[in-house]
Write a structure and sequence with these properties.
By secondary structure, the chain is mostly helical. Helices cover 67% and strands 0% of the residues.
């Protein structure tokens, strides 16, 4: 999962949210250098990624992209799923998305000293351009992928995969809607984190 999903899956803890956000940038046992709840968030991030990477529904989504994008199909799928979390936000949270994102940005400043240098480097651009909120549009996804290709190993032409999203939009959306409640259940059960959302009973029952 990408940034928005990781923050959402942190429940109501600001510290767990920070740990979950920085998880990709804390390597090996370095998580032990952080306070308890941030450390829990880092480990939660790793568990979310492991659960996601090995789930057959996610494999179905990645398979659509694999022929063209190979090992990057998972990264791209994560971004697509954040798009659908944005689109389906009212089914998962009673808090308006702009308020949720704004509160998280405030949280980043409060815990700024705990952020890895890599995040501090791109944070001003992230905030100024409101990256997390751009996932809601195809134009925003393309822009995000283009930026990621400049600072990661993601191939430069990855932004063209938006065409695959357009072509298979309903399939990716169905995969996300089926998978995400299962991921919520996993987080709640394994980490004792309460994630309350409007359709909890309905979604869990259907899963």
């Amino acid at each position: 999962m990408n940034f928005l999903a990781h923050v959402y899956l942190s429940g109501n803890s600001d510290e767990i949210s920070i740990g979950n956000f920085i998880g990709d940038y804390v390597k090996g046992s370095n998580y032990n250098n952080y306070p308890d709840l941030i450390r829990k968030g880092i480990l939660l991030h790793r568990s979310i990624d492991d659960f996601t990477d090995h789930h057959p529904i996610v494999h179905h989504s990645k398979a659509i992209l694999y022929k063209k994008y190979r090992r990057y199909s998972g990264v791209i799928t994560d971004i697509f799923y954040d798009h659908f979390l944005t689109i389906e936000w009212n089914n998962f949270s009673q808090q308006p998305l702009p308020d949720f994102i704004s509160n998280f940005y405030d949280n980043l400043f409060i815990h700024y000293d705990f952020l890895p240098d890599e995040i501090k480097d791109f944070l001003p651009t992230c905030l100024n351009e409101n990256w997390i909120n751009t996932y809601g549009t195809l134009k925003g996804i393309k822009k995000t992928l283009k930026k990621m290709s400049r600072r990661t190993s993601l191939p430069k032409k990855s932004c063209q995969c938006v065409r695959e999203l357009k072509k298979n939009y309903s399939v990716f959306r169905e995969d996300f809607v089926e998978f995400f409640p299962l991921l919520i259940n996993f987080v709640e059960e394994e980490y004792n984190i309460s994630i309350e959302y409007p359709q909890t009973g309905l979604l869990k029952e259907s899963s």
